[in-house]
Amino acid sequence: MPVITTIDDLKRIYKRRAPKMFYDYAETGSWTEQTFRENTSDFDQIRLRQRVAVDMTNRTTKTQMIGQDVSMPVALAPVGLTGMQCADGEIKAARAAEKFGVPFTLSTLSICSIEDVAENTTKPFWFQVYTLKDDDFMRRLFDRAREAGCSAIVITLDLQLQGQRHKDLKNGLSAPPKLTLSSIANLATKWSWGLQMLQTKRRSFGNVIGHAKGVSDPSSLSSWTAEAFDQALDWKRVAELMKMWGGKVILKGIMDVEDAKLAAKLGADAIIVSNHGGRQLDGALSSIRMLPAILDAVGDKVEVHLDSGIRSGQDVLKAMAMGAKGTYIGRAFVYGLGAMGEKGVTTALEVIHKELDTTMALCGKRDIHDVDRNILLVPKGFEGDWV
Asked: Deepest of 12, 73, 101, 212, by most Cβ within 10 A of its Cβ?
């Protein structure tokens, strides 16, 4: 067993073990992938202030996200097709998150259903939804989430229309994978993945197939998704969906000051500064660059979280020091899941927690609540001097 000390260690194992189309699905952005790359590289521009001769004992990374106690300010982001990275992937990731004491967010386009995850966990999880036109489907989806005990809904606002991801088109991405000469050749080298997938019945979109009208098998799913997403989405529709749910709501995909103000005005419990991991609008600024302006705009009117680009505990600390109240990891936990299943997700969380805790201490802080901009060295013009 290799010694795992970084998220990149998990990524290398994941690349060897996962089928190419699913590795590429996770490790890709839209168009030129500029935003995808800068989500991580922009964190490198922010430096840390080392402090010495300070008491580093009795440290804690415990805090809250939307009123929920967490062992560190990190949630598992909603990631579609997680159950294709590893058999029963959503269940395994949810279990790891629950044991570690951080939130797990299930995607609507998961392989394991809401019910599957609820049956295999003991604590409430969060559920992500898209802004779909079909009110009947949305109401039934919310009913299922309530029945499963979901404690919050994450509404994705930045996918009315899907950004083009070249690798997915070239690979013929599907769940289960379509058998072509190239996919068969690749799958033939992924024995451990294949053997695990043969042992589960969960191989397609459990929240949609058999639940959405006219979607009874994977072949009918693509036509449904092409028609289901609401390109006419506006803030009035967002308010309708929030009312339809009636519980805690997190709005994901906020990358503009004006949008942040409108989201806060609607009464969301939190907003997530996120560019969908660089998978939607290529050429958009990174999430960490947009975070300060959005925080300035909304103040304490709404809890602000950050997603996109987090690959280490130092990234978490930098986001928190900027003023975020929580962060999300997507690819980082998927690397662990694809590498080693549930244990890999736990390992990813352990790596991030150790980096967060150690770096916080070396910056002279013992409590995550005491972390602020004072520990950072941010380059002049980091947010950009744009016309």
From this structure: 73
Residue scoring higher pLDDT (228 or 280): 280
Single out the catalytic residue among 211, 276, 353, 369. Answer: 276
Residue appearing with tokens 């000051």:
257
Place of tokens 């519980």: 247
Q: Where are the alpha helices (DSSP H) in the chain?
A: 7-17, 20-26, 34-44, 82-85, 89-100, 114-119, 135-147, 166-171, 181-187, 191-198, 221-228, 235-245, 257-265, 287-298, 313-322, 331-362
Q: What is the pLDDT of residues 160-193, one digit of tens each?
A: 998 999 999 999 998 889 889 999 999 999 999 9
166 is catalytic: no
Measured distance CA(30)–CA(279) in Å, rounded:
5
pLDDT band at 255 (very low <50, low <70, confident <90, very high): very high
State how far the Cα of 270 lies from the Cα of 267, in Å rounded to an integer. Answer: 9
Amino acid at 267: G
Q: Which residue has the tokens 């109240």?
A: 325
Both structure tokens of 67? 């009123």
User: Quick one: tokens of 280?
Assistant: 């939607």
As a whole number of angstroms, the distance between CA 177 and CA 155 comes to: 28
**Residue 73 vs residues 39, 300, 311, 375: alpha-carbon distances, Å:** 19, 17, 14, 17
295-306: pLDDT as tens digits: 999 999 999 999
Helix 287-298 with 313-322: angle, nearest 10 deg? 30
**Does the pLDDT of residue 219 top 80, yes or no?**
no
* Domains delineated in the chain: 7-377 (3.20.20.70)
Distance linking the first and last C-alpha atoms of the chain:
52
Task: Tell me the average pLDDT of the chain.
Answer: 96
